[in-house]
């Protein structure tokens, strides 16, 4: 270290050019040397200044050439020879404006006050491990033909490269700047700009800058904000891996021709990739932490957005003009606010597998996805709104949890499958037309605590569940193919139980019963298809399936009588119908004269035989009942006979007192055998109806 004392003898530099003599005089008086406003192309006596003289003055000069506190200031000079200030120390500023510096500048391991190179044309400049106590300006038209090295440099003020052109880039690896770094407003670099591990106490502003190759900010620390927008253009990768930004990261209006890599990035405030943001490469924010919001509305992502494992404390906006031609992945991401994608265009879909969102998710009002929308295993603390959305390949919500309402209504397009297996939503708000747009529906395990819909028609809802029936073609046998039967339909009871429970809870008791009955129909159809699918046409197979066939027949009877126990009052309808039929039929038998007292004593008595044998009597029973002998006998009543015949108690005495005579005509013969059928139906319907009413069969509540 030279500690401010020059090791150059001024006499060794003589003879001096006129420009050098003017410089010495200006430094003595604290003035700047003005030569011209244009960077000189050729050396002349009036503009040439040798670098050793500048070094001599920076180190304090001598009695013949003293240095002023204002330092060395030159405008329009032609600087020759190498400016070697390695290990030098000075408290004087150096300002070389609009100068041509033909040799390299070496400030490695030096300590200087300030360095201004605005508008100059320079070759290599090295400031590796240097300490700049105040500002370093490489701006306003500066053109660097060679390397600009700031590795491990410490700058106590601002690093400004506004409007500078760096043909071989800028190396600021482990650079420390206490205030801000400006690489904006016409800054141009044809080489890599390296800020790897740099520590910037203010902001990093690259707005309007052009980076032909890589901008490497891997491990960068910026206490305030980073601006890569408003005309920022990068033809190479922008690497912000593991960077720590104390303010916001604003890339709105920036153009990224290749990758923007923010994996492991930490931003204390918000990240803006919106309003004119355009990326032709990947945008990756895997494992990043954002303290504010992630706003991408209006951004264009040619190769997608990778936010797997991303943490955002506030909202994520991928809406209102957001466009992605690549995958948008948020697998395992945590969002503290809402995820708003309304009006966004997702060409290859949205992957939110195991996504956690504390508020709502909005895929509505112009949301458009040509790829899969995957929310399997996602946890949504608010609502999931899909009204007005386009889902070209469906929606995968396997294991999805929605604490608020799930809106699936007024959906514009859904050509794919909807998978809601094992999903749970608080309130389902839907319409059946939106469900019917899907090519398939999987709902086994889908739970909802309430149902709000204009479509509560029970048959429409049963059809909704039927839409979710899956077909297993592997069980289709050659026999079923030959018969032209459909392959096996698998039975899932849970969707029916869920819907029935909701209808029951909301007071639609009859609708709940209809759903449970439809579930039994589906179960038996599935069983039947399973048996037929395994049937190969052999006698052994037919014998093997006899008992299942009998069970199916009994189940069909149960469906007709009491709806498998879920419609017990249907038994009353059957009873009323059969009793009414018996009343009308046996009333006709009586009018046809083919009913007789059901007593051996009466039938063998002279009074009955006289009346019965008289062919002129068309209705012997009626005449006998009016006779002296028949007045005290049970009078025939068609109503009483029909009721007594059906109810297995013989409570009215009609069945004991009267019987149809099979030998008196067709009505009597038919009635003779029909009464057994009525009695059998009475036993069956009474028993089954009682069992259904008491809950021994069927399940009226889940």
Short description:
Helix content is 26%, strand content 23%.
Keyword list:
702 residues, 32-stranded parallel sheet, 17-stranded parallel sheet, 16 helices, 26% helix, rod-shaped
Which runs of at least 5 residues are low in confidence (pLDDT < 50)? 471-488
Terminus-to-terminus distance = 89 Å
Strand content: 15-25%
> Into which percent range does the helicity of residues fall?
25-40%
What does the average pLDDT come to? 88
Layout of SSEs?
Layout: H1 18-29, E1 33-34, E2 48-50, H2 51-58, E3 72-75, E4 78-80, E5 83-84, E6 94-97, E7 100-101, E8 105-106, E9 111-112, E10 115-116, E11 121-122, E12 125-126, E13 131-132, E14 136-137, E15 143-144, E16 148-149, E17 154-155, E18 159-160, E19 165-166, E20 170-171, E21 176-177, E22 181-182, E23 188-189, E24 193-194, E25 199-200, E26 204-205, E27 210-211, E28 215-216, E29 221-222, E30 226-227, E31 233-234, E32 238-239, E33 244-245, E34 249-250, E35 255-256, E36 260-261, E37 266-267, E38 271-272, E39 278-279, E40 283-284, E41 289-290, E42 294-295, E43 300-301, E44 305-306, E45 311-312, E46 316-317, E47 323-324, E48 328-329, E49 334-335, E50 339-340, E51 345-346, E52 350-351, E53 356-357, E54 361-362, E55 368-369, E56 373-374, E57 379-380, E58 384-385, E59 390-391, E60 394-396, E61 401-408, E62 413-414, E63 417-419, E64 424-430, H3 432-436, E65 440-442, E66 447-452, H4 458-467, H5 478-483, H6 494-505, H7 509-534, H8 539-544, H9 546-562, H10 570-591, E67 595-597, H11 600-603, H12 606-613, H13 620-626, ...
Description:
The structure is a single chain. α4 packs parallel to α7 (509-534) and α10 (570-591) packs antiparallel against α16 (666-694). The chain is rod-shaped and about 175 Å long. 26% of the residues lie in helices and 23% in strands. It has a 32-stranded parallel β-sheet that branches. It has a 17-stranded parallel β-sheet. Among the domains are: 299-455; 473-553; 570-693, no CATH class. It is α/β, with parallel strands linked by helices and 702 residues long.
């Amino acid at each position: 270290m030279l500690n401010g004392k020059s090791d150059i003898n001024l006499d060794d530099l003589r003879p001096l050019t006129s420009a050098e003599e003017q410089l010495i005089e200006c430094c003595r008086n604290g003035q700047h040397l003005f030569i011209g406003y244009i960077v000189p192309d050729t050396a002349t006596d009036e503009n040439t200044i040798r670098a050793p003289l500048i070094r001599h003055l920076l180190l304090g000069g001598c009695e013949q050439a003293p240095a002023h506190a204002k330092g060395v200031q030159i405008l329009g000079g032609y600087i020759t020879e190498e400016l070697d200030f390695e290990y030098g120390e000075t408290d004087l500023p150096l300002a070389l404006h609009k100068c041509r510096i033909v040799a390299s500048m070496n400030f490695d391991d030096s300590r200087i006050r300030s360095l201004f190179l605005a508008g100059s044309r320079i070759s290599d400049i090295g400031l590796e491990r240097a300490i700049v106590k105040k500002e370093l300006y490489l701006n306003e038209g500066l053109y660097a033909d060679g390397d600009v090295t700031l590795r491990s440099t410490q700058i106590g003020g601002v690093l400004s490269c506004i409007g500078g052109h760096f043909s071989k880039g800028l190396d600021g690896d482990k650079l420390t700047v206490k205030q801000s770094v400006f690489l904006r407003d016409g800054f141009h670099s044809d080489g890599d700009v390296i800020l790897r591990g740099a520590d910037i106490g203010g902001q990093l502003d690259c707005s309007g800058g052009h980076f032909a190759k890589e901008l490497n900010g891997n491990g960068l620390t910026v206490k305030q904000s980073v601006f890569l927008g408003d005309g920022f253009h990068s033809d190479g990768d922008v690497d912000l891996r593991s960077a720590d930004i104390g303010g916001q990261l604003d890339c709105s209006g920036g153009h990224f021709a290749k990758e923007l890599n923010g994996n492991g990035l930490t931003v204390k405030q918000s990240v803006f990739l919106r309003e004119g943001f355009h990326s032709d490469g990947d945008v990756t924010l895997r494992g990043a932490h954002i303290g504010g919001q992630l706003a991408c509305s209006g951004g264009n992502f040619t190769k997608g957005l990778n936010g797997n494992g991303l943490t955002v404390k506030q909202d994520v906006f991928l809406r209102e003009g957001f466009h992605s031609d690549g995958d948008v992945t948020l697998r395992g991401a945590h969002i503290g606010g809402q995820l708003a994608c309304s009006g966004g265009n997702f060409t290859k879909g949205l992957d939110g597998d195991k996504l956690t969102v504390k508020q709502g998710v909005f895929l509505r009002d112009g949301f458009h996805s040509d790829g899969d929308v995957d929310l399997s295993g996602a946890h949504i603390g608010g609502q999931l709104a899909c009204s007005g959305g386009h889902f070209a390949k469906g929606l995968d919500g396997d294991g999805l949890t929605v604490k608020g309402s799930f809106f699936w209504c007024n959906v514009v397009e859904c050509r794919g499958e909807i998978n809601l297996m094992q999903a749970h939503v608080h309130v389902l708000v839907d319409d059946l037309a939106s469900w019917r747009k899907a090519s398939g529906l999987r709902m086994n395990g889908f739970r909802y605590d309430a149902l709000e819909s204009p479509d509560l028609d029970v048959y429409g809802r049963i059809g909704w569940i039927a839409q979710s029936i899956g077909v297993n073609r592997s069980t289709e046998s050659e026999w079923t193919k030959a018969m032209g039967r459909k392959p096996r339909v698998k039975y899932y009871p849970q969707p029916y139980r869920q819907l029935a429970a909701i209808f029951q809870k909301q007071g639609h008791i009859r609708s709940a019963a209809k759903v449970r009955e439809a579930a039994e129909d589906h179960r038996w159809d599935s069983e039947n298809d399973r048996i037929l699918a395994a049937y190969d046409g052999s006698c052994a197979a037919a014998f093997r399936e006899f008992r299942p066939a009998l069970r199916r027949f009994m189940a069909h009877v149960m469906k007709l009588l009491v709806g498998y126990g879920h419609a017990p009052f249907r038994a009353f309808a059957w009873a009323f119908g059969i009793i009414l039929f018996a009343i009308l039929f046996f009333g006709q038998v009586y009018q046809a004269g083919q009913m007789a007292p059901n007593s051996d004593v009466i039938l063998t008595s002279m009074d009955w035989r006289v009346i019965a044998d008289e062919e002129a009597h068309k209705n012997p029973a009626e005449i006998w009942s009016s006779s002296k002998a028949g007045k005290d006998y049970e009078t025939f009543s068609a109503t009483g006979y029909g009721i007594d015949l059906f109810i297995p108690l013989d409570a009215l005495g009609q069945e004991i007192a009267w019987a149809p005579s099979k030998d008196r005509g067709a009505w009597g013969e038919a009635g003779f055998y029909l009464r057994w059928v009525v009695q059998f139906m009475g036993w069956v319907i009474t028993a089954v109806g009682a069992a259904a009413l008491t809950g021994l069969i069927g399940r009226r509540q889940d």
